[in-house]
Please model this.
Amino acid sequence: MDIRTGNGFDVHALGAGDHVILNGIKIPHNKSMIGHSDADVAMHAITDALFGAVAQGDIGRWFPPSDPQWKGASSDIFLRKAVETVRDLGFQISNVDCTIICEMPKITPHAPAMRENIAGILNIDLDRVSIKATTSEKLGFTGRNEGIATLATATVIKQ
Ligand SMILES: Nc1ccn([C@@H]2O[C@H](COP(=O)(O)O)[C@@H](O)[C@H]2O)c(=O)n1
Ligand SMILES: C[C@@]1(CO)OP(=O)(O)OP(=O)(O)OC[C@H]1O
Model:
């Protein structure tokens, strides 16, 4: 059995706006994420964890920020490509774990919807998708509500 793990980390700034999109879930907020795509920082970290698990580079290699095609794109496009790449290489996705770092918005009330969405895209059972959150105790850019960071880990298995 061939078991591999990948990690992902991403940051997006917060700017003017009235909602954020995290793991594909639209959450009303007093700011919005800034990015070339829809800036779904959580989904980007999971995407990078999957690409990393099979040593296929990172999200920017597959979807360059310089390519106008990805302007405003829904980040599930990127995640679906990572899932397809993992499977094309003969691996199954075992599980993913994701930690969103921000003071606001509060993530816990939205975690069930995020898990459902990610499990659906990855086509794995709900109990294989973990979504967590932490503040940074008001320290740093996340503590000042200037941006949101996300860490993710993915494990893949080839029988
Ligand atoms: N944006 C966030 C941040 C945290 N949570 C939940 O609060 C718990 C306590 O956070 P600390 O940073 O004080 O450890 C954390 O474990 C999460 O359950 C949240 O929902 N959204
Ligand atoms: C997702 C991509 C797509 O152009 O752009 P952004 O939305 O800016 O996100 P980031 O994580 O900064 O970079 C990766 C890019 O591939």
About this structure: The CA atoms of residues 97 and 130 lie 5 Å apart. The first strand starts at residue 2 and ends at 15.
